[in-house]
Design a protein that fits this description.
Number of strands: 8
Order of helices and strands: HEHHEEHEHEEEHHHEHHHHH
Radius of gyration: 20 Å
Shape: globular
Strand order of the largest sheet: 1-2-7-4
Largest sheet: 4 strands, antiparallel
């Protein structure tokens, strides 16, 4: 078995559902131009970090001197069937995005990527091996690289779509100086049905394939630190943390299997959080419930802000235009 095949087999053994390899050259020129124009148009909203490290974001070799290959992995996070799940439109509970119903995937994936790196080190020898692990928060255009590595294609909703696993996929990378066999990019099979565009509650997805984070509910409820404008707050509905509408509307999500990795912990209790109760929480309650969750970086104050919005939209809380947050904490990229 050659080195590339051994690495791929080990990645699957470690629990990843997808693995592909591409080169460390910059992403395609058209994608770089799109990102530049997107940033210049102000569509990154308050995500100032998107403007930083642009060269690294679009060129893996700038992340690691001497880089030759990027190993891209994917982990399916579609939730398993839950007995008596709350209705999506229930006013009793606040909805949390599916990815955050699991334990924080950043340390989970990094731990397994480090194990994969140790495996590679044993195969090639420490004196010949350098690497850098990236999971979401590193400045790297991971969806473009995953597409180039054959893990899927980028659809109208700007999500990576795998025909078998759908769209609910965590991504991670190992950039390395080792020359490996590269996979071919996957052909774009987006059905161009525009179901994701029609499903977006705020119009953040435009008809021409544009995306404006200023209107995105995921951005507003997770990244945005200030008050949320009343017109947008009214469209958030009962979404307490994030939004899955453009994902769930995709035909590829319908028949995608649930997560099969039994080591990734799932928290069904996050599906039954009552916004009214959140307003009475103390910091210790928040810390205890979300100790191992991606929700913890939101902070209690912004979770309360979102809870007030959910209550206002249900008709049981204060008006949306009075909703605010005193949180001044920082957040990391989604």
């Amino acid at each position: 078995m050659n080195l590339t095949k051994a690495i791929k087999r080990k990645a699957i053994e470690l629990g990843f559902d997808l693995v592909g390899i591409t080169g460390a050259e910059p992403i395609e020129a058209g994608e770089i131009e799109y990102i530049k124009n997107w940033l210049a148009a102000g569509r990154a909203a308050g995500m100032s970090y998107m403007h930083r490290n642009f060269a690294k974001r679009t060129n893996p070799a700038r992340m690691l001197p001497g880089a030759k290959s990027v190993i891209c992995v994917g982990l399916n996070y579609k939730p398993p069937p839950v007995k008596n799940p709350p209705d999506d439109n229930s006013t009793d509970y606040g909805r949390i995005a599916n990815y955050a119903l699991w334990e924080d995937y950043h340390p989970f994936m990094k731990k397994r990527l480090r194990a994969l790196a140790r495996f590679m080190n044993d195969l090639v020898g420490a004196s010949n091996f350098t690497f850098k692990i990236c999971v979401d928060s590193a400045p790297l255009a991971e969806r473009a690289l995953a597409q180039r590595a054959g893990l899927g294609f980028i659809g109208t909703n700007h999500m990576l779509i795998n025909p078998r696993l759908g769209l609910q996929i965590f991504l991670g990378e190992i950039i390395t100086n080792i020359e490996l066999d590269h996979d071919s990019p996957m052909t774009n099979h987006c059905p161009d049905c525009n179901k994701c565009i029609r499903a977006c509650p705020t119009g953040a997805l435009g008809s021409a394939g544009t995306f404006d984070a200023n209107k995105c509910i995921s951005y507003l409820t997770i990244e945005h630190k200030q008050d949320i404008a009343s017109d947008l707050a009214a469209k958030i509905g009962n979404r307490l943390f994030g939004c899955d509408e453009c994902v769930l509307a995709c035909p590829y999500d319908l028949n995608a299997p649930p997560c099969a990795n039994t080591q990734l912990r799932f928290f069904p209790e996050y599906m039954r959080i009552q916004p009214g109760r959140v307003l009475a929480w103390q910091q210790t309650q928040f810390d205890r419930l979300f100790a191992d969750s991606s929700v913890k970086r939101l902070g209690l104050e912004r979770l309360k802000r979102n809870s007030k919005i959910c209550l206002a939209n249900s008709g049981t809380g204060q008006g949306a235009r009075k909703i605010s947050s005193s949180s001044q904490g920082t957040s990391k990229p989604e």
